[in-house]
Amino acid sequence: MALERAITEAGGDSLRFNAPAVGLRNATAHQVQAAYRDVPINAFAVTGAWYHTQDQYGEWWTAMGNWNFRDDYVNGSNPDDASGLATDDVDKNCWQNDGDTLSAYDYQNNYYDQTYRHTATVNESVWQIRDRTQGFVLKSDHGTHLLHFRRIGYGCDNKMVAGYHFEHNQDGDASSWGVSISVGVMSLSYSGDAGDTLKKSTPVFYNNPPS
Ligand SMILES: [Ca+2]
Ligand SMILES: [Ca+2]
Q1: What is the mean pLDDT of the chain?
Q2: Environment class of 111 (CB within 10 Å of its CB; exposed 0-12, middle 13-18, buried 19+)
Q3: Residues 90 and 25 in one domain
Q4: What is the model's pLDDT at position 205?
Q5: How would you classify residue 191: left for phi > 0, otherwise alpha for psi between -120 and 50, otherwise beta?
Q6: Is 92 within a domain?
Q7: Which ligand has an atom closest to residue 199 CA?
C-alpha cells in the first residue's frame, strides 16, 4: 500500500485515476492498487476428463485434471498453489486405487519438479505446487493431475464421477494450508495470509463405460 500511503500524505484520497487496463475510471488510489493486485479471472483455466487404458498388464480408468495459465501470466509466489482431484461412485469391488501423479511444466514444456503430494486417500488426491517465476516465466504454467483405478473384479456398473479444482494464490505469507475436497468443491484453510487467490473447478465429469 505504498502508493496509497504516499498519496494520503500528499493530500488525501481525493485524487482520482483512470486505469483502463483493469477497467477502472475515476478510481481512488486504493481501488487501483487493489485491482492490479487481484488475480485476474482469466489467469488460468481448468479441464477434466476420464480416460480408459487396457493392455496386457491390466485395465484402468484414470481421472485427469489439467490446469493452464495464460502464457503471459507471470506471477508465482507463496503460498503453494493447490491442485485437487476427487472421485466418487468408484465401486471398490471392481476398481482399486492404483496411485496418483502430478506433472508441471512451464509454457515451453520444460518439466518443473517443485510439486509435493499433500493428501492421498482412496478417492482423492491433492498436491502442492511451489509456483515460482524465473526469467519472466511461470515455472508451473500448466500441468496434469492423475488418479488411477485398476480393475480387480467384474460385475460392477463401472460408472464413475470426478471433479478437478485448482487454487492459485500469490503474495501471501501462509506457510501451509489444510484442505477439504469433494467432486463438487475444494476448500483451503490457510495457516496465515493467503494473499490473493483464484480458485477454479470443473463441472463434475463422468466416465463412459462400455455397456
Ligand atoms: Ca499456458
Ligand atoms: Ca502460490
Answers
A1: 92
A2: exposed
A3: no
A4: 98
A5: alpha
A6: yes
A7: 2
Whether residue 62 lies inside any domain: the answer is yes
**pLDDT score of 113:** 98
Query: Does 1 have pLDDT greater than 60?
Result: no
Answer yes or no: is 211 within a domain.
no
Q: Which ligand is nearest to the CA of 72?
A: 1
Whole-number Å distance, alpha carbon 133 to ligand 1 midpoint, is: 13
> Using CA atoms, how far apart are residues 109 and 8, in angstroms rounded to an integer?
45
- Overall domain count for the chain: 2
- Residue 138 alpha carbon to ligand 1 centre in Å: 9
Cell numbers of 175, please? 506457510
- Ligand number nearest CA of 43 is 1
The reported pTM is 0.84
Same domain for 196 and 121, yes or no, is: yes
Enclosing domain of residue 7: 2-36
- Tell me how far the alpha carbon of residue 185 lies from the centroid of ligand 2, in angstroms: 19
Any idea which ligand is nearest the CA of 128?
2
Residue 48 has pLDDT above 80, yes or no: yes
Residues 61 and 29 in one domain: no
- Say yes or no: 6 and 107 in one domain: no
% residues pLDDT > 90 (the chain): 80
| Residue indicated by cell numbers 519472466 | 136
pLDDT digits (tens, 9 = 90+) for 74-104: 999 999 999 999 999 999 999 999 999 999 9
Q: Write out the three cell numbers for 129.
A: 505446487
